[in-house]
Amino acid sequence: MNRALAAIAAFALGAMASPVAAQINTPSPAIDGEQGSILVYSRTVGWRHDSIDAAWSAIADIAHEQGWSVTFTEDARWLEADRIAAFDTVVFALSSGNSLTGEQQASFRAFVENGGGFVGLHSAGDASLDWDWYQSELIGPRFIGHPLNPGERTGTLRIEDTDHPATQGLPETWYRTDEWYSFDASARGKFHVLATLDNSSYVRGSWVDGSAISTAEDHPIVWMRCVGEGRSFYNAMGHTASSYSEEGMRSLITGGIAWSMGEGDCPADD
Asked: CATH code at 36?
């Protein structure tokens, strides 16, 4: 796919009221000189975010800027072995729920463990995908809730690794508004933590059952690890459409995708 097509895709996706399986078929980077090939998957079986359009548009812009080819889809057949092999990394952009068959799970797992990349954005880690390998190896801790009424709150992030491609150039103390996910444990130990949320900077509130949202004092919000020969990067932020127009978030996503395709090292787990 040429770079002009990526830009056209961004405009077309922005005009969609609700994205459907919009396919942009791409040749191998080895054929057309592109620097990498991305599959963006946003099928939702659980909660559906209004910000999917904005995420797709932002990733189309990023791909155009970086010289990457990109395919957007909500069709899980693109994760089958004969198709997924054409890509360097797969971005689960606000996907949710159990959308993959057993065969598709197996081909996606083989893709990652044999050198492919994975990038998860926000609800890709909301625990609605009931698959042990995905949860334990790519995401880690399980989502347990987020603030409600309002769900979006201002919080303070601490960037822990300023050398990683995803966090280079970000302010070490970063103030932003999002829907802050809480998890049942810290990702630290099995994953390398890039950014944490300061729990004292926002009010966690209660979850849908009325119970208080509790979380460990250590509250990672962006982390990564190597999985077999592949790489996994997860960013729990990105609930709002406006997130994807923020320079900092775009930089974070750009670096996360680049790292998942092999830029930079695999740091030791924290």
From this structure: 3.40.50.880
